[in-house]
Specification:
Blueprint (H helix, E strand, L loop, with lengths): L1 H5 L4 H32 L14 H28 L2 H33 L7 H22 L3 H28 L20 H44 L1
Helix pairs in contact: 2-7, 3-4, 3-6, 3-7, 4-5, 4-7, 5-6
Length: 244
């Protein structure tokens, strides 16, 4: 099973498999996200405390979750690159970064819109919000580092190290509400503790929206990785022609 997994580190095998997998994932992503958001925004009632503003959670929670998980995915594939030197892993991390950055921007923007009527302010230096902002800066730095270094293997090495450091803030963004109870940010939207459980009327469409965002991430990473592989092949062909 492990040996079959490593076969996908071969760019040719990855391109073959992702060629048929990408359309399937893309269609499922569009359908699932549309169902989750339409269900959440138009077919759920207003909250008795937060009114209609609570419905922004159907955008905020999935995007925040994917912003964090995207960085953790980048961490895993970066470690694979550092240990096994599989180029597809490095390219997958590079492809995931813009998607994670976009998810972070959506989460910050929707969080500000949600927080203003609830807290009376667009932004506070709450531990979770601050660590999330730092994660956003790490995304920018990660992408900038890829662009600044010409040699792709050196860029992959240095961005992998940056990914290791940034993972601290990704984890803080996820668990800060447990570490600092005095923070203004509310507790986890999905909690197993009694008295903090979300009503099923909100939970079910939220789960669908989260699944949709996850599929969007997978589809965009597959697409981005395929694009990076093609770009490297073109660059190699051009260099070969110049040498010939």
């Amino acid at each position: 099973m492990v040996s079959s997994y490593w076969e996908y580190a071969n760019p040719t095998r990855f391109m073959q498999t992702s060629g048929w997998l990408l359309p399937v994932v893309a269609v499922l992503a569009v359908v699932t996200t549309a169902v989750g958001l339409i269900w959440g925004f138009f077919f759920t009632s207003d909250d008795f405390r937060q009114g209609s503003t609570v419905k922004i959670l159907f955008l905020h929670v999935p995007s925040a979750l994917m912003a964090i998980n995207a960085w953790l995915m980048m961490l895993v594939v970066s470690l694979i690159w550092l240990i096994r030197r599989h180029h597809v892993s490095a390219l997958a991390a590079k492809a995931a970064a813009p998607v994670g950055l976009a998810m972070t921007v959506i989460a910050l923007f929707t969080g500000a819109i949600w927080g203003q009527p609830m807290w009376g302010t667009w932004w506070v230096w709450d531990p979770r919000l601050t660590s999330f902002l730092v994660l956003f800066l790490f995304y920018l730095g990660y992408l900038a580092l890829w662009q600044a270094i010409e040699d792709p293997d050196t860029a992959a090495d240095l961005t992998a190290v940056l990914c290791l450091v940034g993972s601290v803030f990704a984890l803080l963004s996820r668990y800060a509400v447990f570490f600092w109870s005095q923070g203004l940010h509310q507790g986890p939207s999905l909690s197993l503790q009694a008295g903090e459980r979300m009503d099923m009327a909100y939970k079910l469409p939220l789960y669908v929206a989260m699944t949709g965002f996850g599929l969007i991430f997978v589809a965009l990473v597959l697409l981005g990785t395929r694009t990076e592989i093609r770009a490297r092949r073109i660059k190699a062909l051009v260099a070969r022609e110049r040498m010939g």
